[in-house]
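To assess whether the prediction recovers the assembly geometry, we first specified each molecular entity separately, as shown.
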Amino acid sequence: MTLAGWLQIGLFAIVLLILTKPVGNYIYLVLESPDRFSVPLLTPFEHFTYKLFGVDERKDMAWKEYAFALIAFSLVSLIFSYAVLRAQGFLPLNPMHFSTSSAPSYATEMTPDLAFNTAVSFTTNTNWQAYVGEGTMSYLSQMLALAFHNWVSAAAGISVAIALVRGFARKNASGLGNFWADMTRSCLYILLPICFVYSLVLVAQGVPQTLEPYVNAVTLEGKSQLIPLGPVASQECIKMLGTNGGGFFNANSAHPFENPTPFTNFIEMLSIFLIPAGLTYTFGKSINDTRQGWALLIVMYILWFAGVLCTYYFEGKGNPNISQLHVQTQASVLGDNGGNMEGKEVRFGNANSALFAVVTTDASCGAINCQHDSLTPLAGLVPLINMQLGEIVFGGVGAGLYGMLVYAILTVFIAGLMVGRTPEYVGKKIEKKEVKMAMLFVLGAAFSILIFTALASVWNFPEKSYWNAPGPTFANINNAGPHGLSEILYAFSSGTANNGSAFAGITANTPFYNTVVGLAMWIGRFLLIVPVLALAGSLAGKKYTPPTSGTFPTHGWMFVVILISVILIVGALTFFPVLTLGPIVEFFLMKSGHLF
Amino acid sequence: MDELDIIPKKKAKPLFEPNIVRRAMKDSVMKLNPRLLAKNPVMFVVAVGSAVTTILLIRNLIEKGTAQELLFEVQITLWLWFTVLFANFAEAMAEGRGKAQADNLKRGRKEAMARRVINGKDEMILATSLRRGDLVLVQAGEVIPSDGEVVEGVATVNESAITGESAPVIRESGGDRSAVTGGTTVLSDWLRIRITVDPGQTFLDRMIALVEGAQRQKTPNEIALDILLAGLTIIFLFAVVTLLPYSIYSVRAAESGKAPDIFSLIALLVCLIPTTIGGLLSAIGIAGMDRVLQYNVLAMSGKAVEAAGDVDTLLLDKTGTITLGNRQAVEFVPASGVNVQELADASQLSSLSDETPEGRSIVVLAKQFGLRERELSDKEVQFIPFTAQTRMSGVNVQGREIRKGAANAVFKFLEEKGMKVSTDVERAVTTIAQSGGTPLAVADNVRGILGVIHLKDVVKGGMKERFQQLRAMGIRTIMITGDNSLTAAAIAGEAGVDDFLAEATPETKMQLILKEQTGGRLVAMTGDGTNDAPALAAADVGVAMNTGTQAAKEAGNMIDLDSNPTKLIEVVQIGKQLLMTRGALTTFSIANDVAKYFAILPAMFGTLYAVSGQPHGPLWALNIMRLHSPESAILSAVIFNAFIIVALIPLALRGVQYRPMSGEALLARNLLVYGVGGLLIPFPAIWLIDQIVVLLHLAPVS
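The predicted structure of the complete assembly is given in tokenized form:
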């Protein structure tokens, strides 16, 4: 660890904190302010959209209606993406002729299971990539099948979060707002303006934005090199801002065309947390008590910082077996390149890689600028736990806030009883229905991660079978020992949490993995959103109980401490056994000289 | 607990009475009935786990496993069964006291006979065959056969069978003291009673059913907690079930160690699922109702007790709750030119035959002026009783007409005599009225106005402090009174309530309740009259006085057998204590898991990735308690898990300690005790059990 590293981490924390309130205020204005927010240039588009689809944007939807609209929209757009992916060979904007007879030799085939996996992946805001972007996707697929979802899945996340916020803010109400209006307004007024400026900044920093085919260059040694290009900047910005994380290129944000400079690295990380942080303020403002939002933000900051500390510490220490071989692993005075540099970009150094790894897994982004597979065992534990907690530390756009609110409800229910009252959170009594929905939320995630990982660690397919050509599922793993288990665990944690980053080291493009990870992603998104919306519906119908001095105050330090404890005990303890068999035992083995 | 003891409990019994314990032990075995176990998801899982280990144990006994394996397996199986039994025992203990009390009540109900009056003739029939509308005659020394209304007669009645209070009470026809309860005994005189309930629905029957817990239903908060616990159980079930494939993978990858056996996995599961709170949850609920009963309040449902903890607004009747109930003379204010002594003398004379508490208090006050009570048996003395028309009472002595009464009535009396009232008296009347007191003017036909007696409501001692406590707990108190707002404001200020409702009528009371409820607040109130019934029914917690009318008793969801409205505050505290106990034990139970992981996981995976020749692999390093061996570690965790249920039974039955304070302060305190305590306590406890287990050779040393 170096001072320069910590200064950068500190700068990140401060800039984010400064941006939280204005962003939150703006989201509030767009989605919650009583007089409808409008922008001269954009509002005609909004009205046109409603007219085009025949939507009555003022209709207040009950939770079931809201959920139905969301799922129906997602299903239709899922099928649309699947169709575009499968048909990309016949569609325009395919300069490299993927999925045609004249496809280049390095191209991957767009099989039905890969198309399904990818379509689910982008619909669910996961962006798990079982393909190599520059070797599989046409420009049209990138833009229409993938980037399109980066927009709408992010907007859908914001919509669900706002619906839950309304559940808290409204009294004796039956409706949660209008899904179509929330989607449209989120895209148009929140995502679009930011992305417009953001993509231009990226272009200025050197990110390509073109529809020209790949360039064939001749290197200094006289060899030829194919340099992939594409409409990268426009996809990069929403990939980060919408916590999607699906890279245009396989190397994701480690690729110089996606993330060329330390400055782009900084704003890319910042843009992951921007909306999730802002939403905590939107929440507080909507319920007329901004302290409640700040309390949640503080919890997120603490958990984030603990993750950064752990990751940076263990990465900075590096691998003891390597230092024993008298390899120079000390950080130099100027660079931040000491410790474990395996799988890292020298451009970014240790601090920015560790920070990126934590930020991208705290939020459900999943973009990466270093190989998580190469992290030292306990540093690699942090991304795993982050995802297993359900991405609530800032979390996905919208998803982070609603996940955190679910934990807040559980916390209030468990600890709030200790003040001798039926638990209340921000004026709403937490009763049977709320507990049931909150538990369903936690159960869904635990089920998907634990059961699917268990299946994938012991399923014995015969070799050359359709479902898994390498044979038994563990044959897909490139690393032996506990590290292999971590790789499987990471895949399903990432899928369920809709993160999309990969530990890699696993051959995931087989029908078995494509289907099961696809299922995990679907469960992790929609099986969790339905209870959240049911929760919102139930809360909205309740009356408001004004706080008294006998109420459990949910804006103080005590609440922060209890919420963190509940998150760690209820959320993380479930995964402690499997983590002992993965990263933890690997850590002990590394200390005794065994590497995997 | 001293705050709770302002009103002493009637039946403060030790927690573990031998006969209750004996019965509970028997019941805990009876409760192994799967149908009963299924009601408790957490314990059901433990029972299923125990059954599985039992079957495996039998198989291993037949297949002749090694002695060491069998020793471990027998013990795990036994302790798992004990976990279930201990939880059953907790519930049976909580039910025990109610059952014992129900037995007592049942004894009183048996073989009572009734003298039914039909067409003017008496006939003796069994009390249990009385129906609503029957007329019975009960004479001194007889037991009242069923609930009813007195239609004729006045009698003293011993109600100790219901209230435990042996001092007799008066029951008479008409008014608010006409309700009688079956099972109580007429001590003197006789009563003619119209029966108001059908057999099986008497107060005694309902009371027996309630204390027995026969119709106990889970309360809303209990159901919510059950869902949470069931959810956690399922999550941990996932965690443990999937551990087998993970270990199979790991054993293959490590090429050493072995996958954990089913005994260890089930042991881990039982240790992780919240068995502590799961085992004690129903006991806490039953004990909460029992605690209310110990204050002689009969809660019609557990829901009512739970709601009491949530109450935001207390509606308290002024009379009898906040004030002593009777206005008392506190001062004589003489008219100008009149001696205080003279005024006191006239006041005393006029009050000698006045048997109302006010009249008596005047005589008492007059004593302070050296005036002794006089015998007025002279024939010349003529007492004028109070009537609603004159609104005065008084006495005529040797031609002197002394009158005392409402100021304007007395002024009118003087006017008729052609006398004037001095302005200072008028001023005194206004001053007293403004201060919340009641002015009583005193005059005679000789000297005219003599002065004014200041009657005042006296606030009960300690009420102000109690209201302060309630405020700290976030509860608002509203005083209900029929007085005008001036008087009400004065008393409200003196007693320190937050608000008051003056000139209250049943309608305004009802409106107040609805207004509070629309504002999201829960309301508790007490009442006894028939016109209180709608408000009692509307309130979230309505405590009816046992002396009250049948209508009131049916409308409320609690009945105070002692008819002491101040107890509402205790009921609220018991409700809070009930919820707190649940929260505290849930937190404790969940926090315990951390230590159990550190006991069991290294034991299960201690041999994985072990270098050949060494007994332990790298994960044995997680054995931070330095437990002796894998067997002793798992055994110790399971034993701790079972014993903690028994250890916490007293807490579950008694409730966590409660002092009125703000929510934040309460939380900080409980969090420290049950959260941090729950995190830390298991470490030394499991370590100690491990030492004992090894000492007794119940598990290998390493």
